Amino acid sequence: RKEVEQDPGPFNVPEGATVAFNCTYSNSASQSFFWYRQDCRKEPKLLMSVYSSGNEDGRFTAQLNRASQYISLLIRDSKLSDSATYLCVVNGRGSYIPTFGRGTSLIVHP
Amino acid sequence: EAGVTQSPTHLIKTRGQQATLRCSPISGHTSVYWYQQALGLGLQFLLWYDEGEERNRGNFPPRFSGRQFPNYSSELNVNALELEDSALYLCASILGFGPEAFFGQGTRLTVV
Q: Cys-Cys crosslink for B104: which of A24, A54, B6, B86, Cβ 3.0 to 4.6 Å?
Protein backbone atom coordinates (compact mmCIF):
# COMPACT_ATOMS: atom_id res chain seq x y z
CA ARG A 1 0.00 0.00 0.00
CA LYS A 2 1.31 3.44 -0.90
CA GLU A 3 1.98 5.88 1.93
CA VAL A 4 -0.33 8.52 0.50
CA GLU A 5 -3.05 7.65 -2.01
CA GLN A 6 -5.24 9.89 -4.09
CA ASP A 7 -7.70 9.35 -6.90
CA PRO A 8 -5.83 10.78 -9.91
CA GLY A 9 -9.06 11.89 -11.63
CA PRO A 10 -9.44 13.93 -13.69
CA PHE A 11 -12.42 15.54 -12.08
CA ASN A 12 -14.18 17.46 -14.83
CA VAL A 13 -16.70 19.95 -13.39
CA PRO A 14 -18.56 23.04 -14.61
CA GLU A 15 -17.94 26.47 -13.18
CA GLY A 16 -19.82 26.99 -9.96
CA ALA A 17 -19.81 23.32 -8.99
CA THR A 18 -18.71 21.94 -5.64
CA VAL A 19 -16.05 19.25 -5.82
CA ALA A 20 -14.39 17.16 -3.13
CA PHE A 21 -11.14 15.22 -3.10
CA ASN A 22 -10.06 12.59 -0.61
CA CYS A 23 -6.64 11.34 0.29
CA THR A 24 -5.73 8.38 2.50
CA TYR A 25 -2.47 7.82 4.33
CA SER A 26 -1.00 4.66 5.76
CA ASN A 27 1.17 5.90 8.62
CA SER A 28 -1.02 6.33 11.68
CA ALA A 29 1.79 8.31 13.36
CA SER A 30 1.65 11.05 10.73
CA GLN A 31 1.70 14.50 12.28
CA SER A 32 1.21 17.18 9.65
CA PHE A 33 -1.09 17.33 6.68
CA PHE A 34 -1.32 19.72 3.75
CA TRP A 35 -2.87 20.33 0.39
CA TYR A 36 -0.63 21.73 -2.31
CA ARG A 37 -1.63 22.95 -5.73
CA GLN A 38 0.47 22.33 -8.83
CA ASP A 39 -0.23 24.05 -12.11
CA CYS A 40 0.88 22.44 -15.34
CA ARG A 41 4.68 22.28 -15.58
CA LYS A 42 5.08 24.45 -12.50
CA GLU A 43 6.27 23.82 -8.95
CA PRO A 44 3.84 22.83 -6.17
CA LYS A 45 2.64 25.60 -3.89
CA LEU A 46 1.00 25.33 -0.50
CA LEU A 47 -2.76 25.69 -0.67
CA MET A 48 -3.60 25.07 2.96
CA SER A 49 -2.68 23.14 6.05
CA VAL A 50 -5.13 20.60 7.43
CA TYR A 51 -6.04 20.46 11.10
CA SER A 52 -8.06 17.99 13.13
CA SER A 53 -10.61 20.71 13.77
CA GLY A 54 -10.90 21.40 10.07
CA ASN A 55 -10.10 24.68 8.45
CA GLU A 56 -11.59 26.94 5.86
CA ASP A 57 -10.06 29.50 3.55
CA GLY A 58 -12.63 31.21 1.39
CA ARG A 59 -14.07 28.62 -0.97
CA PHE A 60 -11.72 25.91 0.25
CA THR A 61 -12.36 23.65 3.25
CA ALA A 62 -9.98 20.96 4.48
CA GLN A 63 -10.80 18.21 6.94
CA LEU A 64 -8.75 15.55 8.72
CA ASN A 65 -10.11 12.25 9.98
CA ARG A 66 -7.38 10.59 12.03
CA ALA A 67 -9.46 7.55 12.91
CA SER A 68 -9.98 6.67 9.27
CA GLN A 69 -6.65 8.15 8.16
CA TYR A 70 -7.91 10.37 5.44
CA ILE A 71 -7.96 14.04 4.62
CA SER A 72 -10.31 15.86 2.32
CA LEU A 73 -10.47 19.06 0.33
CA LEU A 74 -13.75 20.68 -0.63
CA ILE A 75 -13.88 23.41 -3.24
CA ARG A 76 -17.10 25.39 -3.51
CA ASP A 77 -18.18 27.59 -6.41
CA SER A 78 -15.41 26.30 -8.68
CA LYS A 79 -13.63 28.82 -10.91
CA LEU A 80 -11.83 28.22 -14.19
CA SER A 81 -8.65 29.24 -12.38
CA ASP A 82 -9.05 26.32 -9.95
CA SER A 83 -8.02 23.95 -12.75
CA ALA A 84 -4.82 22.32 -11.49
CA THR A 85 -3.49 19.22 -9.79
CA TYR A 86 -4.09 19.04 -6.06
CA LEU A 87 -1.46 17.20 -4.06
CA CYS A 88 -2.05 15.68 -0.66
CA VAL A 89 1.04 15.88 1.55
CA VAL A 90 1.72 14.10 4.81
CA ASN A 91 4.64 14.51 7.22
CA GLY A 92 5.43 11.51 9.37
CA ARG A 93 6.45 11.72 13.00
CA GLY A 94 10.19 11.79 13.25
CA SER A 95 10.84 11.52 9.54
CA TYR A 96 10.29 15.19 8.66
CA ILE A 97 10.02 14.15 5.04
CA PRO A 98 6.98 15.51 3.23
CA THR A 99 5.39 12.57 1.42
CA PHE A 100 3.29 13.45 -1.58
CA GLY A 101 0.31 11.75 -3.09
CA ARG A 102 0.24 11.38 -6.83
CA GLY A 103 -2.21 14.25 -7.12
CA THR A 104 -5.78 14.72 -8.26
CA SER A 105 -6.39 16.56 -11.48
CA LEU A 106 -9.22 19.09 -11.56
CA ILE A 107 -10.57 20.58 -14.76
CA VAL A 108 -13.16 23.33 -14.43
CA HIS A 109 -14.95 24.11 -17.69
CA PRO A 110 -17.26 26.99 -18.66
CA GLU B 1 12.90 37.96 -0.20
CA ALA B 2 14.16 35.57 -2.85
CA GLY B 3 12.47 32.19 -3.06
CA VAL B 4 14.05 28.85 -3.78
CA THR B 5 16.07 29.01 -6.96
CA GLN B 6 17.16 26.12 -9.13
CA SER B 7 19.51 25.96 -12.07
CA PRO B 8 19.50 25.19 -14.86
CA THR B 9 15.79 25.28 -15.74
CA HIS B 10 16.31 22.84 -18.59
CA LEU B 11 19.05 20.29 -19.18
CA ILE B 12 19.49 17.88 -22.05
CA LYS B 13 21.97 15.03 -21.68
CA THR B 14 22.72 11.83 -23.49
CA ARG B 15 22.48 8.40 -21.93
CA GLY B 16 25.53 7.55 -19.82
CA GLN B 17 26.47 11.16 -19.11
CA GLN B 18 26.37 12.90 -15.74
CA ALA B 19 24.01 15.71 -14.74
CA THR B 20 24.49 18.28 -11.99
CA LEU B 21 21.51 20.23 -10.69
CA ARG B 22 21.73 23.10 -8.25
CA CYS B 23 19.45 24.57 -5.64
CA SER B 24 19.62 27.64 -3.42
CA PRO B 25 17.16 27.58 -0.53
CA ILE B 26 15.38 30.54 0.98
CA SER B 27 17.71 32.52 3.19
CA GLY B 28 17.68 31.08 6.70
CA HIS B 29 16.32 27.70 5.65
CA THR B 30 18.68 24.89 6.54
CA SER B 31 16.84 21.88 5.12
CA VAL B 32 16.83 21.02 1.43
CA TYR B 33 14.80 18.22 -0.09
CA TRP B 34 15.11 16.83 -3.61
CA TYR B 35 12.21 15.21 -5.42
CA GLN B 36 11.83 13.59 -8.82
CA GLN B 37 8.58 14.03 -10.72
CA ALA B 38 8.41 11.86 -13.81
CA LEU B 39 5.69 12.59 -16.36
CA GLY B 40 2.31 11.55 -15.03
CA LEU B 41 3.70 10.49 -11.69
CA GLY B 42 3.78 12.05 -8.26
CA LEU B 43 6.73 13.55 -6.46
CA GLN B 44 9.16 10.84 -5.39
CA PHE B 45 11.47 11.71 -2.49
CA LEU B 46 15.13 11.54 -3.44
CA LEU B 47 17.33 13.13 -0.76
CA TRP B 48 17.15 15.28 2.35
CA TYR B 49 20.00 17.49 3.53
CA ASP B 50 20.08 19.46 6.72
CA GLU B 51 22.98 21.41 8.21
CA GLY B 52 25.33 20.01 5.61
CA GLU B 53 24.50 16.37 6.31
CA GLU B 54 22.53 13.83 4.33
CA ARG B 55 19.66 12.93 6.68
CA ASN B 56 17.72 10.50 4.53
CA ARG B 57 17.43 9.20 1.02
CA GLY B 58 14.59 7.70 -0.93
CA ASN B 59 14.44 4.46 -2.84
CA PHE B 60 16.80 5.47 -5.64
CA PRO B 61 20.06 3.86 -6.81
CA PRO B 62 23.43 5.17 -5.58
CA ARG B 63 24.07 6.95 -8.87
CA PHE B 64 21.76 9.63 -7.46
CA SER B 65 23.84 11.58 -4.98
CA GLY B 66 24.31 15.09 -3.74
CA ARG B 67 25.66 17.38 -1.12
CA GLN B 68 24.87 20.50 0.82
CA PHE B 69 27.32 23.35 1.11
CA PRO B 70 28.04 25.54 4.16
CA ASN B 71 25.72 28.23 2.77
CA TYR B 72 22.96 25.55 2.65
CA SER B 73 22.77 25.48 -1.13
CA SER B 74 22.67 21.99 -2.55
CA GLU B 75 23.71 20.01 -5.56
CA LEU B 76 22.15 16.86 -6.99
CA ASN B 77 24.32 14.65 -9.16
CA VAL B 78 23.00 11.91 -11.37
CA ASN B 79 25.63 9.62 -12.86
CA ALA B 80 25.33 7.18 -15.74
CA LEU B 81 22.11 8.76 -16.94
CA GLU B 82 19.35 6.50 -18.17
CA LEU B 83 16.39 7.41 -20.35
CA GLU B 84 14.00 6.93 -17.43
CA ASP B 85 15.82 9.63 -15.47
CA SER B 86 14.03 12.16 -17.66
CA ALA B 87 11.85 14.10 -15.25
CA LEU B 88 11.25 17.35 -13.45
CA TYR B 89 13.60 17.59 -10.46
CA LEU B 90 12.26 19.77 -7.69
CA CYS B 91 14.12 21.21 -4.76
CA ALA B 92 12.29 22.33 -1.64
CA SER B 93 13.54 24.19 1.39
CA ILE B 94 12.06 24.10 4.85
CA LEU B 95 12.83 26.25 7.85
CA GLY B 96 14.05 23.91 10.56
CA PHE B 97 11.67 20.95 10.65
CA GLY B 98 8.79 22.60 8.90
CA PRO B 99 6.06 22.38 8.35
CA GLU B 100 5.73 24.17 5.01
CA ALA B 101 7.96 23.23 2.07
CA PHE B 102 8.80 25.93 -0.44
CA PHE B 103 9.65 24.70 -3.92
CA GLY B 104 11.90 26.00 -6.63
CA GLN B 105 10.66 26.08 -10.20
CA GLY B 106 12.45 22.84 -10.97
CA THR B 107 15.00 21.56 -13.45
CA ARG B 108 13.58 19.65 -16.37
CA LEU B 109 16.11 16.96 -17.27
CA THR B 110 15.79 15.22 -20.59
CA VAL B 111 17.95 12.21 -21.35
CA VAL B 112 18.21 11.26 -25.00
A: B6
Residue A46, number of CB atoms within 10 A of its CB: 16
> One-letter amino acid identity for A89?
V
Computed over every residue of chain A, the mean pLDDT equals 91
Q: Does A61 touch chain B (CB under 8 A)?
A: no
Q: Does residue B48 contact residue B56 with C-beta atoms inside 8 Å?
A: yes
CA distance A6 to chain B (A): 10
Distance CA B79, CA B22 (A): 15
| A43 interface with B at CB cutoff 8 Å | yes
Block means of pLDDT (10 residues each) for chain B, length 112 residues?
Answer: 90 98 94 92 92 93 97 97 97 78 94 97
- Say whether residue B38 is in contact with chain A using an 8 A CB cutoff: no
Give the three-class secondary structure for B62. Answer: coil
